[in-house]
Each structure stands twice: as structure tokens, then as C-alpha cells.
Description:
globular, alpha+beta, binds zinc ion, three-stranded antiparallel sheet
Amino acid sequence: MSAVSTRRIPHTPPPSFEGVAGELAVGTCGRGSGCPSPRTYLADGRRICWHRRAPDGWRLAIDAELTSQPVPPSLGIRVATTSPSEFWPAWTRTEVVCKLLDVPVLVWLTRHGLHSEPAAVRLHTVVTADGLVVTVGARPV
Ligand SMILES: [Zn+2]
């Protein structure tokens, strides 16, 4: 018997990623821990909020890293790269996939590696002039 997809069709189209850069609050969100937006923390402690409301039927997530960080050796061995410019964009995309699917990232890496992106997940990555790589993503729920 073949598997049947039980994924619901979203009521609204996928969110556009246009204008995302203007929706990112890097250490500047004044709403404190009550901010309802998807958010993540950088290695230097700054919080980044993605000030976007999820469209009906979609779940949103964000991950970000400092592009200047060295690749942690334990992860570099797993994914066979020590290049920060290769690693961090792929890492943030993987982190967003895992947040959207509720899968621990190390479990995902073991099963799928660093460059596997499910078709149902939409991702958008931005590298900013001030040294951040930010990935935002959405998936139907
Ligand atoms: Zn916020």
C-alpha cells in the first residue's frame, strides 16, 4: 500500500519573501519577550525578530548567524566543510527547516545532511552588509 499525503492545502498562498530585509529587527525589537514574531539569537546575544505575521495555514521560522564565526569543528567534520561562507548559509537553511518541521538539527544532519530541503518548505536567505546570514522560511501547516 502506498503512502498517501495527508498534508492540508493552505488556505492562503505562501508568504512572499519580498521586503524581508526591512522586517528584520536586529537587537532593536522593543517588545521584549512578549514579541509574537518568529525570532532567533545570534552568538553575540542579539535577538533578531522577523516582524511578519504568519498567513493563515502557514508556519514561519527564522535563523541567523554571524558570517565571521568559524565553523565549529564538530559540525565541520559532519558536513565536510570548514568554509564559513559555505557553511553558515546552508546551516541557517537547515535550522529553519528543522524549526518548521520540529526535528532536532543533529538528527536532521545525520539523516539528510546539510543540503536537503523538503519541497513543502519555502526558504529565503539574505547575507547582510554587516556580517549576518539570515534565513527565513515558511511551511504549510
Ligand atoms: Zn520583535
